[in-house]
Design a protein that fits this description.
Elements: E1 2-7, E2 11-18, E3 23-30, H1 36-51, E4 60-64, H2 67-73, E5 80-85, H3 91-94, H4 105-108, E6 121-124, E7 127-128, E8 134-136, H5 140-151, E9 157-161, H6 170-182, E10 188-190, H7 191-194, H8 200-230, E11 236-240, E12 246-248, H9 249-254, H10 262-278, E13 283-288, E14 293-299, E15 302-303, E16 305-306, E17 309-311, E18 314-316, E19 320-321, E20 324-326, E21 332-336, E22 343-349, H11 368-374, E23 381-382, E24 387-388, H12 391-406, H13 410-432, E25 444-448, H14 452-463, E26 468-470, H15 477-484, E27 487-498, H16 504-524, E28 532-542, E29 549-553, H17 555-560, H18 564-578, E30 586-597, E31 618-626, E32 629-637, E33 646-648, E34 651-654, E35 659-662, E36 666-670, E37 676-680
Parallel strand pairs: 1-4, 4-11, 5-6, 5-9, 9-10, 13-25, 25-26, 32-34
Antiparallel strand pairs: 1-2, 2-3, 7-8, 11-12, 13-14, 14-15, 14-20, 16-19, 17-18, 21-22, 23-24, 26-37, 27-30, 28-29, 28-30, 31-32, 33-36, 34-35, 36-37
Helix pairs in contact: 1-8, 2-8, 5-6, 10-15, 11-12, 11-13, 12-13, 13-14
């Protein structure tokens, strides 16, 4: 029994997979922002009732969380102390000397305060060179005094980031030993552990970010584990990493920086699985939830993994799935600007409490969900009939806040709200396609999240990306992605040398050390030998370039020090990516090893055809606002739609976890995997 849990801003989504029976069960319950563990436990009870099992029967819980992200964005992290090499106290302030455009963008830049203040930064007398050789020995007495002054000032966590510690961690380890001897309960992170790579600002900010959210993540996971124990649930709790892999709750408590994009990762993972299952290897992932929308590109059946990301203004150099997020979701609030008199939607969200007006939980400001309800796109009841919508209240709110100030009818005001929200989301889709030289017409678009299938057809109509693919469990697809994820961790060693001057024995020894670390990690995660995979890569560049290209290297070649095949692959990849190759020396920058633990595939029992017709799936006709008029629109029950059936738009398809809108001049078919595929009429 594997349970995936995705905590969103409005709903907590759960998907339970029973490996023995090959069955999945889904549930949605309101999130509880004041204490997310309450909503998680409510969801567990609900899905166990649906599956008719006891909570104690759940073996594994796989959880994606936005705790780290929210703490950074809201500036509500821990007070972090920082130890640096003497003379480098301003590393976090200087950063990369970047300012936003245009030319004088720096004048209006509201630069945030560093995650560790200058008052909480201590200078240590020591110095290593880039090879790790000692230039100035560590002054233990001075270091001890500095540690006492800093740790006694009330900091909640301590980061240690010394110059060139990636080449020799001895001084950082010595400082950690001093801290642990006097302050054993204080969380300490070493940059040589968190990010053993060159470029001191990246290493420092990533390490400090880890400690900034570490106490919060510890408390959060502790609350969840305590509630599970109180319920008698002894399941293994695993957390989803930003790169779509899994880590234990204990590892997440120690290295929460690897979870900064944990939430969106599940949906991308499921989109990759869907691409491989259907043979549609060029897809756009479109995940629209209650608070935000996340989009990603799937190329050749694979997601793109970046070596760094940004959380607000702050970069984090950790492996992440490339996801673009915008503040537009079902709960995004619409209003009229008092300065310009124009209609705005988002990024403010009604969240789970009070939520959209139509949810009848105290919300008074109109949201995107209210507009969908007013225009007839949402059914009178959601979540399998458990949540009745107050359409009249939504109309009143839109009339008061939007229609009256703009002199519009309520219907046109609601239509305008959706148009603005769609434009915000289109901007994100353009960034990941057009701005990268990709033609969106070469892609299909996978719609998921509670609101994704409501808006995906409109996205496709503008961008020309067809088909629109609505999976069988779109509303809880991220939770399904967590269940489909593998255990993953990356090990890296900076090693800057000209490739033609590297001693193969030196390379072999360093890859051997990384392999030993990877095997220790796999042991700690209880990964069976048969499920272990090791993937070796090199960061290479032409000499004096500023950025690297990652290329794979076979395990035998890595452990023998043979670079010939990898160097040929580098030249080819550089020419394919940038259109040029150079006849200059190639420089090795870093060695990487990614260890994965394969998990059991999610095998779902094939559902037998109902044997009915499309008329049998018809629930009712309800008015829907399409174009500039109301149309008597058929509403279908997705559970009764069999492979091969076709629907002509406009139409609405209802299911437990979401609602799909099929626009006029479009048609839909149910494929062999029971996905809904939406096409424009001209492709009929």
């Amino acid at each position: 029994m594997r349970l995936g849990i995705d905590v969103g801003g409005t709903f907590t989504d759960l998907l339970l997979h029973d490996d023995k029976r090959g069955r999945t069960f889904r549930a949605k319950t309101p999130s509880t922002p004041e204490d997310q563990s309450i909503g998680i436990l409510n969801g567990i009870r609900l899905i166990c009732d649906i599956a008719k099992i006891k909570p104690q029967e759940i073996d594994v819980i796989l959880h994606g969380t936005t705790v780290a992200t929210n703490a950074i964005l809201e500036g509500k992290g821990a007070r972090v102390g920082l130890l640096v090499t003497e003379g480098f106290e301003y590393t976090l302030h200087l950063a990369k000397s970047w300012t936003p455009g245009p030319l004088f963008g720096w004048i209006i830049m509201d630069k945030p305060a560093p995650l560790a203040s200058l008052d909480d930064t201590g200078a240590i007398r020591e110095r290593l060179d880039m090879r790790g050789e000692v230039i100035e020995a560590l002054d233990v007495e001075q270091a001890t005094q500095t540690i006492h002054a800093l740790c006694g000032s009330g900091i909640e966590a301590l980061s240690i980031c010394l110059m060139h510690s990636y080449a020799n961690p001895a001084h950082e380890q010595a400082l950690k030993a001093i801290v642990e001897a006097h302050y054993p309960d204080l969380p300490v992170s070493l940059s040589s552990d968190i990010l053993p790579e060159f470029r001191e600002y990246d290493r420092a900010i990533t390490t400090v970010m880890n400690d900034y959210v570490r106490p919060i993540m510890r408390r959060y996971l502790s609350r969840i584990e305590n509630r599970l124990k109180q319920e008698g649930i002894n399941s293994h709790l695993h957390i989803v990493r930003s790169d779509g892999g899994l880590m234990s709750a204990e590892a997440a408590s120690e290295r929460p920086v690897h979870t900064v994009l944990s939430g969106p990762a599940g949906g991308v993972t499921s989109t990759v699985v869907l691409a491989q299952a259907t043979g549609r290897e060029r897809l756009l992932a479109f995940d629209m939830g209650g608070t935000s929308t996340d989009v990603a590109v799937i190329m050749d059946g694979k997601a793109t993994i970046s070596r760094s990301t940004e959380v607000g203004y702050f970069p984090a150099k950790v492996p992440t799935l490339e996801v673009r997020s915008v503040g537009a979701g079902g709960g995004s609030i619409a209003d009229v600007s008092p300065l310009t008199g124009s209609l705005r939607v988002g990024p403010r969200s009604a969240g789970a409490q009070p939520g959209p007006v139509c949810y009848s939980r105290g919300g008074t400001e109109p949201t995107v969900s209210d507009a969908n309800a007013v225009l007839g796109y949402l059914p009178p009841k959601l979540v399998g009939g458990d949540m009745a919508l107050d359409i009249d209240a939504a109309r009143t709110a839109i009339g008061r806040a939007i229609a009256d100030p703009l002199g519009l009818s309520i219907d046109d005001a609601a239509k305008g709200m959706l148009a603005i929200a769609n434009e915000v989301m289109l901007g994100a889709l353009r960034v990941i396609t057009v701005q990268r030289g990709l033609d969106p017409r070469d892609f299909g678009i996978v719609a998921f999240g509670g609101a994704g299938p409501l808006h995906a057809n409109a996205m496709a109509a503008v961008l020309g990306c067809y088909p629109v693919v609505v999976p069988t469990n779109p509303g809880v697809l991220s939770a399904l992605g967590f269940v489909q994820s593998e255990f993953k961790n990356e090990f890296v060693q900076t090693f800057i040398h000209r490739a033609d001057r590297i001693d193969p024995a030196n390379l072999r020894d360093r890859f051997g050390a990384l392999t030993a670390k990877a095997k220790d990690w796999l042991d700690s995660q209880d990964i069976a030998q048969v499920d272990r995979r090791l993937h070796f890569t090199l960061d290479l560049r032409y000499e004096q370039q500023g950025f690297e290209v990652e290329v794979p290297i076979a395990q035998d070649a890595a452990l023998s020090g043979d670079l010939s095949v990898a160097l040929a692959a580098f030249h080819e990849k550089h020419e394919r990516t940038y259109g040029v190759r150079f006849e200059v020396p190639v420089e090795l920058v870093a060695l990487r090893l990614t260890a994965t633990g394969v998990t059991e595939p999610v095998a779902v029992e094939e559902k037998a055809p109902s044997g009915g017709t499309i008329e049998d799936a018809l629930i009712e006709y309800r008015p829907g606002y399409f174009g500039d008029t109301w149309v008597d629109t058929p509403n279908y029950d997705r559970e009764k739609l069999d492979p091969g059936m076709r629907i002509q738009g406009p139409a609405i398809v209802r299911q437990y976890d979401t609602t799909t809108v099929l626009l006029p001049n479009h048609w839909a078919e149910i494929d062999d995997h029971r996905n809904i595929l939406i096409w424009p009429t001209e492709k009929n």
